[in-house]
Fold:
Amino acid sequence: QVQLVESGGGLVQAGGSLRVSCAASGLTFRRYSMAWFRQGSGKEREFVAAITASDDSTYYVDSVKGRFTIARDNAKNTVSLQMNSLKPEDTAVYYCAAQRDGVCSGYGCYDHQVLYDYWGQGTQVTVSS
Structure:
């Protein structure tokens, strides 16, 4: 049984930092590209960042470039999202997702939610102004 469990969400002031993590089990982690998506209240879920299985290439939505960093640890089966210079508009539930290696090649693919095989339950990040 595959499980993705997010942790590390919370309340932070604008300009602050937060790190969310996702622990994966029940799958061969190194064979999956991993991504973070987020969903704000009343909004559709959107792509935030992805890191590939093959060579750790990373992709980011424009709104977080230079502020967020996605990283993976294949030895610990974890993926993290370091979020700096947070803004109130970053407030959302953050979800991690896993996609089997080889499905995508390039940014235009990794933001397609339907191409992900597994999802976590999400962790709330709230940025106060």
Observations:
- The longest strand covers residues 92-100.
- The chain has a mean pLDDT of 96.
- Residues 107-110 form the longest helix (4 residues).
- The chain is about 5% helix and 50% strand.
